[in-house]
UniProtKB/TrEMBL annotation:
The modification N6-carboxylysine is found at K158. Belongs to the metallo-dependent hydrolases superfamily. Hydantoinase/dihydropyrimidinase family. One of its GO terms (cellular component) is cytoplasm. It catalyses: 5,6-dihydrouracil + H2O = 3-(carbamoylamino)propanoate + H(+). Pfam families: Amidohydro_1 (PF01979). One of its GO terms (molecular function) is dihydropyrimidinase activity. It is an enzyme of class 3 (hydrolase). InterPro entries: Amidohydro-rel, Hydantoinase/dihydroPyrase, Metal-dep_hydrolase_composite, Metal_Hydrolase, Metallo-dep_Hydrolases_sf. Residues 54-459 form the Amidohydrolase-related domain. It comes from Armillaria gallica. Its cofactor is Zn(2+). This is dihydropyrimidinase. Residues 478-498 are annotated as: Disordered.
Amino acid sequence: MSFDLDLIIRNGIVVTASDQVACDIGIKDGKIRFLAAGLPSLDGCQEIDAEGGFITPGGVDSHVHVAQSAAKGLGARSADDWTSATRSALAGGTTTILAFAVQGRGTSLANAVTDYHTKSDDFAVCDYGFHLIVTDPNEHQMHTELPKLVEEGITSMKIYMTYADLKLNDGEILNVLFAARKYKVTTMVHCENADVIDWMTKSLQARGMTEPWHHGTSRPPIVESEATNRALALAELMDTPMLIVHVSAPEAINIIRKAQTRLLPIYAETCPHYALLDGSQMRKDGFEGAKCVCSPPLRDDPKDKERIWEGLANSTFTVISSDHAPTCYNDERGKQLGLIENPTNNPRGNFKTIPNGLPGVETRTPLLWSEGVLKGRITPQKFVELNSTNAAKLYGMYPQKGTIQPGSDADLIIWRSDKSRKPYKIENSKLHHACDYTPYEGVVLEDWPRYTILRGKIVYDGEINEVLAPPGSGKFLQRGSSTLPGPRNQWLSEWRPE
Ligand code: URP
Ligand code: ZN
Ligand code: ZN
């Protein structure tokens, strides 16, 4: 075996989802070649001294909205394009993102994918893949187009139970699940009860209760837990795995936990904002609360955040994603829509027309590291599992992505050691996204990535806060099927899919 290496990282503590070990990492042609103590120095080989810091796999953020029109159909515009979103990812230690190619109703999945390649391929700076958002699961789309896209490495789809332009009824969801099982596609579900939201919204509007925090009033936890329960019932009926996205309500966590205890292949995702922010954000002065309008909403009871941390630590949650869905605050096609489309002229705006979503692709990993590992809420191994490994497994990228082992892509984060760690204050001006705010302005973290490495190259230098990768250097990932547990061949009746 040749000792020809391009890069050696010394003096680090390598962390995977199961272990941590002090060793050097030898990298060749973008791949990890050796993990060993005392690798010899080689002529022409670059070296990095990790100075005793932890080294974790590059982050895999499996839920990022990039250059996608917002769900409310009001012509809201995404703050980021593919270059700014992926630069932001790298600066926060994320080396792979999965973003959404949206099928418009009555249009084809294949067109959505072609369009999305046009937006991304020459512009991305981190590695990336696409999920499909399915809005029209007819026979042709599900059984002619979908299998072709699976061959092209698009092996996951998101469906919605709410939003007028996106929602599917239960029969349509079964169409999707039937195809998902057949073609081994991971299904992600946005669980909120659309009819309840519509009814509550109308009622609140009629009473003039339109301030940003009434976004939360219109969607109490039961809206999420009822839909979660229904989605899981449909998954059980079809005997197919399912990931519930952006879970926020403890009631929904309980339902998911129960299903997992019954060994159903049910997976769950949450986001840093549900672990760290609460509904008080939407009650800030003036129209400021609009910055934190997202769906499901931030929950009112501050104690709910501890339930999220509990679910992260006890493996109810499979992954933590950013759900990066940025619209600018000072943009007439961003959050300001809530003041513009505001029939009652409420000076605090109208929640109904505020585009949903928060930015977070850059802050996700440092928040989980600092608030999770360095504050003792989760172990470094659990961090790796939630931040990288499980997403790579669930979405068919493992072990190319999501771990540190010979043969894997050399996607790494080098953190600072106990001795050299210094506080990092989050300020929007330091972030690399194109959004004009962060919900974490002023939050002080205990650390921030010192280096991000993608396929063996330093792509973010935290000493100077610079992203070094040029547009187009990110690679599209042709993914396989999930390697987490799948169908069990256990049925609720005599019905079978074949
Ligand atoms: O509020 C959110 N999460 N907006 C993004 C769209 C979605 O449903 O994930
Ligand atoms: Zn969603
Ligand atoms: Zn989302």
